[in-house]
């Protein structure tokens, strides 16, 4: 029975409109956690879009695509581990989900910027692993 109640609560919270969330000074910790989660979801969407664009360009180079795939998996493990580490002081606290999401969002935004630079390399740049799109 508890599992059904928990499932219903999760479904309701996921369906709750983002605009109804209070992300300002009067927000509850749950609201702040949700707002931080929204920021992380946006950063993840940008990461997935950018990663997909690079993988499309790497179709003619399967070894490069595999190398990026492995690097991205390792980067995700790093991001999650790093954020677990830097938020260890809040372990067990209601603020920790917000801190973890904010950390992951920041690192994800940095990764997006790094990947986007690969999409704008100059022709002939041997230090750039992604061929120009055009």
TrEMBL record:
Superkingdom as given in the UniProt entry: Bacteria
Gene3D superfamilies on file: 1.20.1270.180
Record Pfam families: LprI
Alphabetically ordered keywords of this record: Signal
Record's signal peptide: 1-20
InterPro entries: LprI-like_N
Ranges of residues in domain Lysozyme inhibitor LprI-like N-terminal: 26-115
Designated name of the protein: DUF1311 domain-containing protein
Organism: Teichococcus wenyumeiae
Lineage of source species: Bacteria, Pseudomonadati, Pseudomonadota, Alphaproteobacteria, Acetobacterales
